[in-house]
Amino acid sequence: MHAISQSAVWLKEPSVNAGVVIVTSAALPQYMIDKLHQSIDDWDEVAYLVVKQSRAFMRDWLRAGSDPDDSKLAATCHARQLLRCVAKGCFLLDVEASPIPSLTWLGSVCGHPLRVVRMGKAAASDAAMDQQVEEILSVTRTLAKSVLQERCVI
What we know:
It is a single chain. This protein has a single domain (8-153), classed as Rossmann fold, CATH 3.40.50.920. The chain is 44% helix and 18% strand. By secondary structure, the protein is α/β, with parallel strands linked by helices. Helix 1 packs parallel to helix 6.
């Protein structure tokens, strides 16, 4: 686990081969966070960022962008520090548990393409959460495959 900020932490840092970064809120059930982390542990193409304090994280980014001439503010932006090690063509997969998306702005930080998966109602059982994790992993596989195909064509 690597943290530059109290607001967000890498559960799995991006490798040079990363094509997808799964981004979740810490409000996602811990069971799902753990299952996702376990499922991608040996998958070099996928990284995992958990945002613990989405509002503080966004305010920091907005503050840094409010004065584009202040390079000191831009250099201390936690979101930019976390995402600058992610390749430009890498997808951010924003997993939203709430009906109101709170992390979609992350695609604007460094210009990464972003996709959203909405989880809907909170799952009541481990089996239901396992099914939601599989849905997230299915989208992750599709995105990773498209990135790998694009890299091979170029």
